[in-house]
Amino acid sequence: MRVLVYNELIPEQIPNFDKVVHALGERDFARADVRKLTDTLYRARLNKSDRLLFSLYRARGETCCLILEHIRNHAYEKSRFLSRGAEIDEDKIPVIEADAATPAGDLPLLDPDKPRFNILDKILTFDDEQEAIHGLSPPVIIIGSAGSGKTALTLEKMKQMVGDMLYVSLSPYLVRNARDLYYARNYTNDDQEIDFLSFQEFLESIRVPEGREVTPRDFQAWFVRQPAARRLRDAHKVFEEIRGVITGPVGDEGWLSREDYLDLGVKQSIFSEEDRPAVYDLFEKYRVFLRDSNLYDSNIVSHEYVGAVVPRYDFLVVDEVQDITNIQLYLILKSLRTAGEFILTGDSNQIVHPNFFSWAHIKSLFFEARGLSGAHDGEIVRILRTNYRNTATVTEVANRILKLKHARFGSVDRESNYLVRSVAREPGRLQLLPQTPEVLGDLDDRTRRSTRVAVLVLHPDQKDEARRWFNTPLVFSVQEAKGLEYDSIILFNVVSDEAKAFREVTRDVDPAALETDTLTYARARDKRDKSLEVYKFYINALFVAITRAVRNLYWVESDHGHPLIDVLQMARFSEVTVSAEREDSSLEQWQREASRLEMQGKTEQAQDIRDRVLQQKPVPWSVVDRATFDAQSEAAFASGARKQLLPVFEHALLHWYRPILNRLTLDGFKPALDPEDKAVTLMHRKHFEAYAFKNPGTVLRDVERYGIDHRTPFNLTPVMVAARVGNIPVAKTLIERGADPTLTANHGFTAVDFALERGLTDERFARQKLPELFDLLAPPSIDVQARGRLIKLDRHLMEYVLLRIMGALFYRRLGPWIATRYGHNEGFTAKALAEVVTILPEEVLPDRRKKRTYISSILSKNEVDGTSPYNRFLFRRFRHGHYIVDPDLKIRVGTAWVPYYQVFRPEAWGPDHPPDYYARSGLYSEADIKAMQTREIDRGMQKLAAFRADVLGLETDGNSLGPRSP
Ligand SMILES: Nc1ncnc2c1ncn2[C@@H]1O[C@H](COP(=O)(O)OP(=O)(O)OP(=O)(O)O)[C@@H](O)[C@H]1O
């Protein structure tokens, strides 16, 4: 049997490794003392205390043994691959013979001839090209077409690095995806701390810029109103010139001076010398426009930040570098402690952002700023030619486009001069179809209900025409589609709608020039020829559009006689009968697609799915938000009617709005006198009945009607309710369908905070529910702003967990602590926190992190006036050993920055209700007791008001809802 070893394992450090692996290879399970742990996992015995975890899978028809993990000292509960916290009783697990052990499935991406394999979201082996790059030391530039494994390879490379690291890319979606891939299957690494940041977040981590980043759409809307628009015509082209040529280069100023700009060589600008003065005039107006509209240009901001960036990373990765400009790259590389410790990846055939990117620009940047790439002298560029994403047919057309580009414009640069190989076993399908009502009707009928087919047009303004024919909500312009992939793509009049431009793209190209299997390096003939710069968008857009199709391409054109169709030899694919399979996706799949698109910022399409496919409606009930609640409770107390007070009580109970609960108790409001358990049970039964069932059916009915994140009358989302009641299957289903776990309730809680709040007081809940709920619901990071900088707290950090715990304790514990009469427990102390967290299971907080000394070190490290170089400026120490979240801290809610103490509400703090020892003593009348309790509560409220004013610096509102003395 073949044995492959996970690349993270170091066999030399594992006792008896060779001996045991040899036995496994010979299928001698008895010698290796193999036992079966789960359906897919086995263990072999290394020595008295250590075990080796492995799985069996089939690859290319052979059974392969995949060695996964070294279990030291019987510590199965620490295993990465067994479910967390697994308790295995060695005496009870069954011995198994090799013949009885069957492979758990097929692994199509595994090459059994390789000795090592890698694990990201799936198990795969690298090909020789990839392996060679994996072995290189930085700096490395990885060039490869879409789907060549650049991201996968780079992430695996990062795992070998030690220290502080950065992964950065323009698209927030790609970054999020990369982070999830990195930590897939419980990967952890104590030797590194990684920031996964979009470029905008990277800027924010230096200093949060004012306003919002200008988009091409803002520019276009402004451009068409300018008199110069008539002469310069194309907004995209002008924007590209400004972004790529005027503000993009590295220099001493934020942009090129007029003189320098007019002096540029012909290859350095998209515009002719005659047009350049007009472009520069417009650029000057553009800066005024930015200032007046509170927008910023990230290039100009990057220039401003060059002096402010501090070296803070030991290693960094820039993924999709073709999307960013030189000054942006320069700024990123300036954050390295040692020059040259980087990997850049990219593909210049995928440039559809206006930024005038070329590999030559990057090379000249390294040449001019020699310090950037370190002492390394040799070639740092490596190319990946194999495509793992698209079928052979799709790849063939993509290659023809590359050949056409080469034949027409010459080599863009030496680096991008290559064709792509497909390894897909399936051939895939390509049909060139005419634009007739019958064909379009049929195509639409077969594809409109499927989440796996999207329609692509070249420009955003062509989407309306496409929507006349196609009913799917998945209609995108090419720029929108960048970074997406679908099983099948319908290209709609991409060429016919820009017939003139594409005619230029094919001008003077001899089809015979495309009959080649390699691209030879050749520059364009005429240096003054700007056609590449001008027409690059069209040819790249076509390339990007086509490579979005994983399997099939349906290409609809009104004019099949266009020269481009001819040059690409598409006629052989011409058909009049649509052969797309008809496919209906379920509502669930559509819901997931809507959420996926939402996350990628494709709000238009996501909304269209919700409106037309899911037919979601606004909730028919009124939702009680903060303002409504304040008004409702005032009115209820004024009326004193039970019917009005009950919803106020329930709301206060759910949000632990202590002043209101106290007041209701003092007023003798019956439900408020019940023990909390009873009141909660009644309320849950009344309002959250649907969440009591394991089967999510009832909850999903509302979700289908009103959307996955609709608000219940208490202004909670369904997943918040599931978290609060501890219903794991429902929470899981909602998350799988795309529920957003970052949304907040009236008092600032996200779904996971509800679960944590309960887990911190209820031992059984903590043990049975919290590990899974935390895993499922805790968002990957919390964005905070301290001292004007973004600090992204990754879920792996203790700071993240601590901030969450402080949030979960905010109302129930912190308020009463501050309010206590003797004041010895104000604020969070390491001692109090260490006591509180003992209840949390190992999976949520490992024992080493529960220690008082450790908690204390994290608190003081992040104290706002502290001097640690790793200070994240989270906490303020207002008395010796007493901490609170810093009142100047802001957190990101949706896209807005909100002060922490507006998200969490100190005005909802109140003292615990005084115990009934007065009553028990039997010495006092009922009226006396009430008076004493009232006084006690009043004192607490006053203390809280003073704390809010003195420590938090907040205005106090006179406790309008606090209890008044009778
Ligand atoms: N050696 C390999 N064997 C099998 N699958 C692979 C291999 N390398 C990469 N893949 C898979 O191919 C797909 C594309 O890889 P990846 O997303 O890393 O490509 P990319 O070059 O970054 O693409 P893009 O430029 O479109 O972002 C992924 O699903 C990845 O897991």
Characterize the structure shown:
This protein has 6 domains: 2-119, no CATH class; 139-207 and 308-384, P-loop containing nucleotide triphosphate hydrolases (Rossmann fold), CATH 3.40.50; 213-297; 389-584, P-loop containing nucleotide triphosphate hydrolases (Rossmann fold); 618-779, Serine Threonine Protein Phosphatase 5, Tetratricopeptide repeat (Alpha Horseshoe); 780-910. It is 40% helix and 14% strand. It is an alpha/beta fold and 966 residues long. It contains 40 helices and 28 strands. The chain has a 7-stranded mixed β-sheet. The model is unreliable at 958-966 (pLDDT under 50). Strand 25 and strand 26 form a beta hairpin. The structure holds adenosine-5'-triphosphate. Adenosine-5'-triphosphate binds at residues 109, 124, 126-127, 130, 144, 146-152, 347, 388-389.
Task: Fill in the keyword field for this structure.
single chain; 966 residues; alpha/beta; Rossmann fold; 6 domains; 7-stranded mixed β-sheet; 6-stranded parallel β-sheet; globular; binds adenosine-5'-triphosphate
Count up the domains: 6
**CATH architecture descriptor of the largest domain:** 3-Layer(aba) Sandwich
Q: Based on CA inertia axes, which overall geometry fits?
A: globular
Q: What would CATH call the class of the largest domain? A: Alpha Beta
**Total beta strand runs:** 28
How far is the N terminus from the C terminus? 84 Å
Domain UvrD-like helicase ATP-binding: 123-391
Protein name: UvrD-like helicase ATP-binding domain-containing protein
GO molecular function: 3'-5' DNA helicase activity; ATP binding; DNA binding; hydrolase activity
Binding site for ATP: 144-151
